[in-house]
Amino acid sequence: MNVDITGLTRRFGRHQAVAGVDLQAGPGVFGLLGPNGAGKTTLLRMMATVIPPSAGRLRLLDRDPGAYGPRREVRRRLGYLPQNLGYYPGFTVAEFVEYFALLKEMPAARVPAAVATAIERVDLGDRARAKLRTLSGGMLRRVGVAQAIVNEPELLLLDEPTAGLDPEQRVRFRALLRELAQQATVVVSTHLVEDVGAACSQVALMDQGRIVFQGTPAELMARGTEQGTGDAPLERGYTAVLAAARS
Amino acid sequence: MNGPPPDVDLGRVWISVAAQVWHRRPSRLERVATRLLRSPGLARALLTTPSLLLPWLIASVVVLAAGAAATLSSGQPVTALLAPAVAAAAIAYSYGPGIDPAWELSCSMAVSDRMVLLARALAVFAVNAVLGLAASAVSAVSAAAAVPASGAAAAVTFGWLIPMTAVCAFALAVATVTRSASAGAAAGVAAWLITVLSGRVASGRFGTAATDPVLFLPYLAVGAGCAAIALYASRIPGGTRP
Amino acid sequence: MDDDDLVARVAAGDDTALRELFGRHAPWLAVRLRAVLPAADVEDVLQETFLAAWRGARGYRPQGACGGWLWGIARRQAALLLRRRGPADQAVTALPADLPAGQQGAPDPAETALARADLEVAVAALGPAGSPEREVWRLMYEQDRPVAEVAEMLGVPPGTVKSRAHRARRLLRAALRAVEGGTN
Fold first, then answer.
1. pLDDT at residue C34 above 70?
2. What stretch(es) of chain C map to CATH 1.10.10.10?
3. Is some CB atom of chain C closer than 8 A to the CB atom of B217?
4. pLDDT tens-digit readout, A44-64
5. Spatial distance between the Cα atoms of A98 and B41, rounded to a whole number of angstroms
6. Is C164 helix (H, G, I), strand (E, B) or coil?
């Protein structure tokens, strides 16, 4: 189990963004669905060790990130793509990816090859030395993915990774995810239900800080047989589960 | 001719070519910083501090303003003691959640963001100190040429920028050796307090310590000593890595 | 964008041009090298070749012979690799016949191996196995038989043998020049 979460809670002031979440995930692609404000980003941020939980048990890669030493070990094996990743306009693609590779304390000798691999994997090989300010939004998102995968992480957390990518790029991205998921746990938080269906082996649906469904995409589709609204089976399952949870 | 031989992995070959073509060998300064700080990531963060332009400008402006208040006001103790706090807050904000576009990502990095802020503080003060020295030299020349010029540049440089550079270097050295950013920051605060208070004792006026050019050499010595300590400590084979 | 322009761009420091050059030329270079080297060595030699091309592109004279230039670099890198390994590791057999250019003294096995790769490509240009020029080449040059003997074996007059040998040498020279020029 790369991710082992029990009763995880996070409060901001009086608002409970995450209200008691249980989650176990091993290797594979794990999808996180839910409306805005459901707590997906907060959950992802806790798994990325950016914010500590308010209560509950969090174990990542068999370590407790509450202590400094294990947290550093987790971070070396972690890849994270935040929802709003900015960029340094004067950096080139290679410089940006290399900078974060170094901050993840990758051995310096391995960094150049790892950076080249990451850049080619996201299909930016012809822009490696282009300045970030010359890139489009979709390309910048791919640069973000590149820095997340540069250290071949065991735990990869992606918040809205396909924002700004065209359908062909999304197909290639899903193939990349499946490749990475052979060894790692990949958690993808997304609005795009089709991404979930095509790539994920497990799906969790969050609403108001709680997980209201956890299972395979097929099981989610099965939930939507009559009650749900939507064009695609997954969408129907999604709306059916949400409706049931709120009633 | 058909495709390449099936047992030759051209993708792998290209990666090894690209690895060398795309990689930029770090500058001499960065290699030295890497050895002193025992962390290539921290060294890179330190040296890219000025290249992040907007944070750099904001941090520098506030640092210089705080320095002007500290040294040019007439011996107000509170200003001299609080100025570093204002400067530190400005650096933390401009290279932090306020302005750094990749701040969220930096918080998930193995190299602690507090160590990075400490390193950036040193960069802000050190570069501004160098600029201040240049400005002081210019105003000294113009004073010699009997052109009226304020000694403000020299006062701020020798009274604030250089001592604070020494304090930051000391703080970073302590942080490197103890592997704790908090320990380093505490050491830096202590060092500044001692500086200001010993100046008070020496001349009966707060804030002078700093303005006294006689103490300039000790500050340099402190900075050099910190570098020496860190260099020596980085030679000791590491025990348990935190 | 033709090859000469690409190399000019590489010389100016454009890494995307190097990438394009790699995409175009690495496959056939790999095939040529694979004829004489194991796969792992082919990968090493290709890596060194394109790094050398990246560093030395300024020395290239644009004459439309980009392939030949790259092959020349690849040959040198392969020879370096084989020489580093030492004679014990060279699992290559010596050339059965002298190259038209001739070699002074004991031929360098590394160079020989690579020359052999060139030669095999060129000999294929003489025609399919069994064609008149190919047969003459095989008997006279590879097996080193005198003209009279070859004429008797093939059942043709010696004059015919000589003229076929002449044509074979001409074809071979042209083919070797083309091989050096990098056409596939």
1. yes
2. 109-180
3. no
4. 999 999 999 999 999 999 999
5. 9
6. helix
Tokens 């990774």 locate to A161
> Quick one: closest CA in A to B20, which residue?
A112
Smallest CA–CA distance, residue B25 to chain C, in Å, is 15
Sign of the C-alpha dihedral computed for residues B209, B214, B216 and B221 taken in this order: negative
Supply angle C-alpha A92, B22, C32, rounded to 5: 145
Residue in chain A closest to B108 (alpha carbons) equals A50
Structure tokens at C54: 């990246």
How remote is the C-alpha of A12 from its chain's centroid?
22
Helix (H) or strand (E) holding A57: strand A55-60
- Other Cβ atoms less than 10 A from the Cβ of C72: the count is 14
HSE of C134, CA atoms in CB hemisphere, 13 A: 12
- Assign B200 a pLDDT band (cuts: 50, 70, 90): low
Rounded CA-CA distance C23/B12 in Å is 13
Among C14, C19, C21, C54, the strongest candidate for a mutation testing the A interface, having the largest count of A CBs within 10 A, is C19
Please state the length of chain A.
247
Q: What is the pLDDT of residues C73-84, one digit of tens each?
A: 998 898 888 887
Please check the confidence at residue B232 and state whether its pLDDT lies above 70: no
Query: Which pair of tokens denotes residue B13?
Result: 């070959």
Interface of A with C (CB under 8 A): 125-129
What one-character-per-residue DSSP string does A181-237 give? TTTSEEEEE-S-HHHHHHH-SEEEEEETTEEEEEE-HHHHHHHTSSS--SSSHHHHH
- The angle formed by the CA atoms of residues A147, A152 and A157, to the nearest 5 degrees, is 65
Distance CA A224, CA A239 (A): 7
pLDDT in the model for residue B117: 86
For residues B230 and B35, give the distance between their C-alpha atoms in angstroms, rounded to a whole number. 9
Write out the two tokens for C1: 């964008």
Residue B19 contacts A where some CB pair is shorter than 8 Å: yes
C164, C169, C30, A60: which is closest to B2 by C-alpha?
C30
CATH topology of domain C109-180: Arc Repressor Mutant, subunit A (1.10.10)
Tokens 């394009």 -> residue: C20
Of the candidates A64, A69, A38, the residue with the CA atom closest to the CA atom of residue A53? A64
Task: List residues bridging with A21 in a β-sheet.
Answer: A8
> What number of other Cβ atoms are within 10 A of residue C81's Cβ?
17
Q: What does chain B come to in residues?
A: 242
Enumerate the residues of chain B whose CB falls inside 8 A of the CB of residue A111. 23
Question: How buried is C159 (Cβ within 10 angstroms: 0-12 exposed, 13-18 middle, 19+ buried)?
Answer: exposed
Q: Does B13 touch chain A (CB under 8 A)?
A: no
The residues, any chain, with a CB within 8 Å of residue B165's CB and separated by 6 or more, are: B122, B125, B126, B129, B219, B223
Q: Which residues lie across from A10 on neighbouring strands?
A: A18
Determine the Cα–Cα distance for residues A41 and B15; give it in Å rounded to an integer.
Answer: 34
Mean pLDDT of C125-139: 79
A61: CB partners within 8 A, 6+ apart? A2, A73, A74, A77, A154, A155
Q: What CATH code would you report for C3-89?
A: 1.10.1740.10
Q: What Cα–Cα distance (Å) separates residue C51 from each residue in A224, B13, C15, C19?
A: 57, 11, 11, 11
